[in-house]
Write a structure and sequence with these properties.
Length: about 280
């Protein structure tokens, strides 16, 4: 399967960009509530080494997702998620095996996996792989996902499913069905206002200020989500530096709040910014 994706030097290597984005997100420091080079954030069950192990396990699958998209490029978009899901679940299993059962990147696999799949699909259709084209493709592939998987659901076991029922929040599913609208509208237009680590920290603050992160809700309820959104918005309004981010890190750790969904979308934002 690995040889399927024609090595087209003019087309970007989205799986490679996605793997790099996961590493850059992990190493960004300080990163309020999240695992970074300095501490484990609000997590008892994961650290820098475990997340690195998780990224190593996930990385080969990113190319698999792109190859599946390439192989089925001429099948209707509505059929694609069904084709992709088994590989996505297999990748989740590889992550859980590598982490001894800790959920490190379930959301990251979902969002970045769809981006890689969409890149392969565009390449198979002979179309240019741009940030806009990728987001439109992901939205097309995921059309109806929220209605199919969250509305009128009888059983509900995951955080995302619970929160749709309790608060109407659509989580990762809503974000991909919108074609990463939070990233496109709240982050990318401001990407070049900062450089280096500040560019990623600025993007993360913008995500935390607006992303309805299901991890924050599952850990701290709607009050927890609002607390982080308001705190991030205040820093964006008044200005921030590493000392302010370190203080926010301490505040989130004291409340056991972790914006894991925003960490995933930060990696998505970096990939899309690299292609814009
Ligand atoms: C489609 C699914 C992936 C949906 O799963 P679920 O029903 O659980 O839905 P969500 O809760 O909405 O999202 C799951 C993860 O996505 C991240 N996330 C949360 N909010 C958003 C958002 N608004 N936009 C985008 N992404 C979002 C988040 O993942 C990150 O956090 C996790 C680590 O944090 P932690 O708090 O430690 O999480 P837990 O361990 O669960 O809590 P504790 O026990 O520690 O307290 C980590 O996953 C990060 O990535 C959400 O957790 C799924 O149902 C599915 O179908 N999967 C199959 C795969 C597939 O279909 N793939 C296709 C493409 S390859
Ligand atoms: N750096 C990080 N810390 C905690 N959870 C995460 N999920 C994705 N990246 C993460």
């Amino acid at each position: 399967m690995a040889g399927l994706l024609a090595i087209n030097a003019t087309e970007p290597d989205v799986p490679g960009l996605a793997a790099l984005a996961l590493l850059l997100e992990l190493d960004l420091t300080p990163k309020p509530g999240l695992v970074d080079r300095a501490n484990n954030g609000s997590h008892q069950d994961m650290d820098h080494a475990l997340l690195l192990t998780s990224i190593t396990a996930i990385t080969p699958w990113l190319t698999v997702f792109a190859n599946i998209g390439f192989e089925h490029a001429h099948h209707p978009a509505a059929e694609q998620l069904r084709l992709l899901r088994p590989a996505g679940i297999a990748c989740e299993q590889a992550m859980f095996t590598a982490t001894s059962g800790v959920n490190t990147h379930k959301g990251g696999i979902f969002s970045l996996g769809l981006l890689c799949f969409a890149a392969g699909r565009l390449q198979g259709q002979g179309r240019r792989v741009s940030a806009d084209a990728l987001c439109r493709q992901v939205s097309e592939i995921c059309r109806g996902l929220v209605a199919r998987e969250l509305v009128n659901r009888k059983t509900c076991c995951t955080a995302g499913e619970q929160q749709f029922r309790d608060y109407g929040l659509t989580g990762a599913r809503g974000e991909v069905e919108s074609g990463f609208a939070t990233v496109r509208n709240r982050v990318l237009p401001f990407w070049h206002l900062e450089q280096g680590e500040r560019q990623l920290q600025h993007a993360l603050l913008r995500l935390m200020a607006s992303n309805p992160d299901s991890n924050l809700v599952s850990r701290g309820g709607e009050a927890g989500l609002r607390y982080v959104q308001r705190y991030a918005a205040m820093l964006l309004a008044t200005g921030w530096d590493n000392a302010a981010l370190h203080q926010m890190d301490q505040a989130l750790m004291a409340r056991r709040l972790s914006p894991g969904g925003s960490a995933d979308l930060l990696a998505v934002a970096w990939v899309l910014a690299a292609l814009a």
